Amino acid sequence: MSGQQHYVDRILSRRETLELGTRLGLAAGAAALVGGRLFESAAAQDATPEAAFPPADLPVLEITFAADGSVSAAAESPAGTTTLRFVADGAPFISSVMFVRPDGLSDEDLEAGLASPEVPEWLHTTRVNGSVDFEPAAPGDAFEIVADLAPGTWYIVALAEIPAYTTVEISGDPVTVEIEAAVEVAFEHHDFTLPAEVPAGDQVWRATNVDDVLHHMVIFATQTLMTDEEVLAVLTAEGGEESTPEAEAGPPPVFPVGGIGILSKDEVLYQVVSLEPGFYAALCFLTDPGNPAPHAFVGMIESFTAV
Ligand SMILES: [Cu+2]
């Protein structure tokens, strides 16, 4: 609980963190917001999903993150539904995003965009998927997601103060496989569509973006089923003054427990999401081009229950 309290203190003491959703990757509104990484090592998960995930018969693209900050992967991989295996080979954490380089984007704009704390406008014009934020419990631990990859030259970026990237050529007629998912999530225009009740435990979630701009989803645990206004009030409150021993002894009102990375329009991602039974709120901290308001402030909050 102390770790969670620490996260909450960070949230409460940093009103400006809600603006951090303007960074690349799920790292954006999430890791920067909470000062930690969202996904625990698979080795730390205490159960496996009811259906085997990822399915064994999918092509696997292994992406390796080294201690020196570099990222490497195979030069090519077939298009279609693919297991993306993010391996921490010496890297203390993995914060990544994948995208197809837009036509005509200069090297200068590419490098500047990757180094910028803001989402570059060009990222809204292309395919984005493969955004994870993962802290390994032990060296060599991996985090796996499944994505439908369209043909193209995909950039795989290791987000850091000095970003590194590699490229992989995705080619051929896409072989798309529908994977059984316990929960379906749609990223819509400033809104999420997901069930009011989702199954607790390690479950496969399928997420897709049906909007024209980028979205992600950060999941916060809450003590009650909160209204949008209540969630935002907690996240934007000034912290510190009301911190008493009694308050610290109780569970924090709102704390992050996971999420789904950035997707562009029509991208599809499958991922195991592990929730205890209880109440949650899903928020998006990304922004529209030219508008600094995180989507959560214009309605992109959805409360739900895990049972
Ligand atoms: Cu959004």
List key phrases describing it.
307 residues; mainly beta; 5-stranded mixed sheet; 18 strands; 14% helix; 41% strand; globular; disordered N terminus; binds copper (II) ion
Describe this entry's structure for a reader.
The chain has helices at 2-13, 27-34, 107-115, 228-236, 245-249; strands at 39-40, 60-66, 71-73, 76-89, 94-100, 128-135, 142-149, 152-158, 164-175, 183-188, 191-193, 197-198, 201-209, 215-222, 254-263, 268-275, 278-283, 301-306. By secondary structure, the protein is mostly beta strands. It has one domain. Strands 1, 2, 3, 4, 5, 6, 7, 8, 9, 10, 11, 13 and 16 form a 13-stranded mixed sheet that branches. The protein is globular. The two termini are 21 Å apart. Residues 1-36, 42-47 and 240-247 have low confidence and may be disordered. The protein binds copper (II) ion.
Assembly category: single chain
Count of alpha and pi helical runs:
5
Q: Report the span from N to C terminus.
A: 21 Å
Q: Which sheet architecture does the biggest sheet show?
A: 13 strands, mixed
**Integer average pLDDT:** 82
* Helix fraction by DSSP (H/I, runs of at least 4): 10-25%
Bound small molecules, deduplicated? copper (II) ion
Structural shape = globular
Which segments are poorly predicted (pLDDT under 50) over 5 or more consecutive residues?
1-36, 42-47, 240-247
Rg, nearest Å:
18 Å
- By secondary-structure content and strand pairing, the structural class works out as mainly beta
Q: What percentage of the residues does DSSP assign to strands (E)?
A: 35-45%
SSE topology string: HHEEEEEHEEEEEEEEEHHEEEE
Number of strands: 18
Q: How many domains comprise the coordinates?
A: 1
